[in-house]
Amino acid sequence: MDVNQFLPTLPFTDPVLIFFVVLTIILFAPLLLNKLRIPHIIGLILAGTLFGPHGLDVLAHDSSFKIFGNVGLLYLMFLVGLEMNLNDFRKIKTRGIVFGIHTFLIPMILGTLSSIYLLHLDLMTSILLASMYASHTLVAYPIVLRYGVGRNPAVTITIAGTIITVVGALIILAVIVGMQTGTINEWFWVRLILSMTAYCLFILYAFPRIARWFFKKYNDNVSQYIFVLALVFLASALAKPAGLEPILGAFFAGVVLNRFIPSVSPLMNRIEFVGNALFIPYFLIGVGMLIDPSVIFSGWDALFVAIVMSVIATVAKWLAAWITQKNFGLTKIDRAMIFGLSNGQAAATLAAVLIGYDIGMFDINILNGTIVMILVTCTISSFATERAAKKMATQQPADENDKNRDNTGQARILIPVANPYTLENLVNLAILAKGPHKQQPVYAMHVIDDNKTPLHSGDVGQVLLDRAAKIAAASDIKLVGLSRYDANITSGIVHTIKEQNITEVILGLHHKSNIVDSFFGTKIENLLKSTHKMVAITKCTIPINMTTRIVVAVPEKAEYESGFTKWIDRIANIGKQIGCRVIFHAHHDTIVVLRNVLHQKRYNIDCEFEVLDDWADILTLTGVVLQDDLLVIISARHTSLSYNTEFEKLPLQLSRYFAGNNLIVLFPEQFGEENEQLTFTTDPLSIDVQRNYSSFTSVRDFFEKFSRRRKLWNHRRQKIRQSRKEK
């Protein structure tokens, strides 16, 4: 019996075996090379070389690797656009443009001169080869994501420069190929400009409207993920007819969808997980399979070309990073990050060399030299980016959690859960308010009323807590579920605040049970009287990530409250995660303090300030707040310095004029003794104990006064009678 007939032949053709080998590489290559302190990206590329057709020939570079490799590259560029901090980009766009010009012109000049005088190529071939040096691929970007420094200004500068230099390199490629094949005529530039303009306008105006409609209508996580991918590949497919490369279409899709997908959200977590676990590693393995180590030893000519190309590509990118650093006073770590990210050559370089080889402009030595250059530059890029990202990650907490933020950094948020329809929005709002860099868990609790315990209410509460934990886990956030029996709901919340050292409470606005019920409800009113912690009462009519702007109404003297900086931190976190503009309407003196706090804490959010000198003018916001805006009202308790008698009208105004808006009524934290009045056998939530007790004492005083007056009147009447008798 011949055993060989049962053994698979090399290279593997069975899809199951191919996928098994690829997954094994993705699993073990980073683990093994991390022990040698080699970046995992290099591990995947080297593994592709080892198991590819130029190595052990276990895997063939067939259509599956071409498909998954292209998908991985598009996915990588989509993540780059999705991770960009658009607010920071607006502030540093000048530096990004300058770096883009440097990282395009310097390689073009050095590459053209070196090709003419060292490689002895003609002018057109030298320019095309230089365009390969100018373009670069963000191969090392997964390292940036792994260390959590994707929104560092140096990374944003590099991304901006990447788009400029890739577009420039691809235009040069199209022009030279057109000249070589004779397809350029007087209409070439007109057609190119019109098609690119039409494409950009379609992406910028159609995609946001489609995305907003879909995310409002459908909440299913799987449907949202598939919808996002469909838009990405639609943008990539439409880029080709417009004269652009699909990688630019994927990047544009990421930029447009950026504000609809918060960086800390279940959808973002799924997008990053699938890309980093499967698609991007497939792309890196595919790059490694193209590398032929025997090229280096095929002859002096091939080796000389490979050395020249690798040195010119590396030196040119380092010079661009160095000049950008000196021009704008950046640190050495910033320069290292810019150089590391921009030095990797892969996507556009491969496209250019293959096209040039097919039309006869490049020979086999240029093709082999390009493969070696890709290996060398990707290796240098990975090591440089790893080192810079590690330093940035160790310095980041000191920069972001400034000493001035000590009183706002501890975010122990409690979410009382009772309504399954508002649960998801409450959890998502708490995650956004907490911020991405704070490790404290979110607390969710369900209170079972001892006096009104319905059948199976404990089971219903546990179902809600389990669902809340799943929603938070989808964003990689830990949620602690708490279930307790107590005299009433408010008592349970207050006791949990003390037991768990809660800093703030986020709860949903109740539904009025009858016409005499108050706007906030007796439970919330008693909670505000029983704790001085920050309380946020929310109502969401649309998903919180669909917010276009955050409009904040701040009363006069709000800056004197002890919880002033804390609520600024939470609103700034929400605005930063969603990527929307925050508009503060406040008194002139309060605006001065607001500006100082936002500047000192370095929140870097897009914000505006409008004067609201008189709280009675709050209704002027009806002409400001749009349907997709989030309205935040900074209210105050009766004992607060910023309390205004106009607050009494607030419930009627909100229910009448802002009923269709997302709404947060926020009561800041304040100092003072907490007045716990909840340990009664009867339910204090059905009546206002303090108000009824006050009413009782008033009635008692009235009758006492009436009794005293009556006694005094009788005494006077007796005296009058006695005086009459004596007369």
Report on the architecture of this protein.
- With 727 residues, the chain is an alpha/beta fold.
- The protein has 3 domains: 3-290 and 300-393, Na+/H+ antiporter like fold; 406-532, HUPs (Rossmann fold, 3-Layer(aba) Sandwich); 534-671, 3-Layer(aba) Sandwich (Rossmann fold).
- Helices cover 60% and strands 8% of the residues.
- The protein has 25 helices and 10 strands.
- The chain has helices at 15-35, 40-51, 63-83, 86-91, 93-117, 123-134, 141-147, 153-181, 188-217, 221-239, 246-257, 266-289, 300-328, 332-343, 347-358, 364-400, 406-409, 423-434, 457-473, 489-499, 522-530, 564-578, 588-600, 650-657, 689-726; strands at residues 413-416, 442-449, 479-486, 504-508, 534-539, 549-553, 581-586, 607-611, 630-634, 662-667.
- A 10-stranded mixed beta sheet has the order 3-2-1-4-5-10-9-6-7-8, sandwiched between helices.
- Helix 10 (221-239) packs across helix 11 (246-257).
- The longest helix has 38 residues, at 689-726.
- The radius of gyration is 33 Å and the shape is elongated.
- The chain starts with 14 loop residues before the first helix and ends with a helix.
Low-confidence stretches: 397-407, 513-517, 677-697
> How many DSSP helices?
25
Report on the biggest sheet. Answer: 10 strands, mixed
* Structural class estimated from helices and strands: alpha/beta
CATH top level assignment of the largest domain:
Mainly Alpha
- Domains counted in the coordinates: how many? 3
Report Rg. Answer: 33 Å
First-last Cα distance: 149 Å
What's the CATH architecture of the largest domain? Up-down Bundle
How are the strands of the largest sheet arranged? 3-2-1-4-5-10-9-6-7-8
The strand count comes to 10
Helical coverage, percent range: 55-70%
Q: Calculate the mean pLDDT score and round it.
A: 80
* Residue fraction in strands: 5-15%
**Anisotropy-based shape:** elongated
CATH fold name of the largest domain: Na+/H+ antiporter like fold
